[in-house]
Design a protein that fits this description.
Elements (H helix, E strand, L loop, with lengths): L10 H60 L2 H21 L1 H16 L3
Length: 113
């Protein structure tokens, strides 16, 4: 029976292999993080565009409906404009209370595991 010579490779070679493995792992983790952020960003942009279009068409629909109720198109669009003015003022005066949850949501999205 032959004696096996199972001597481990020199320490320098092991350290080189370890460093190469760590570099590969860091690259893969960076790629995973970047693609996750990109995919989230793309899906968020598509969602926002869809919501803006739905909001826009709903606004036109409401304005046209109110115009037909008041028998004057300008009154329908005026009512919708006043509604948006009221919403904008409410947001402006409650800005501080609205900022914190939005900032927290962005931070959670960036640092989610």
């Amino acid at each position: 029976m032959e004696a096996k010579n199972d001597t481990p490779p020199p320490l320098i070679d092991q350290l080189k292999d370890y460093a190469e493995t760590r570099i590969k792992l860091a690259k893969y983790q960076a790629i995973e993080g970047g693609t996750t952020i990109a995919a989230g960003l793309i899906s968020d942009v598509v969602t926002i565009i869809s919501m803006v279009l739905a909001f826009l068409f709903a606004s036109f629909t409401l304005a046209l409906y109110l115009g037909s109720v008041f028998h004057a198109w300008w009154m329908g669009f005026g009512c919708v404009s006043v509604l948006y003015l009221i919403i904008a003022l409410a947001i402006k005066y409650n800005k501080k209370r609205l900022e914190k949850p939005i900032v927290n949501a962005f931070i959670q999205k960036i640092f989610k595991d």
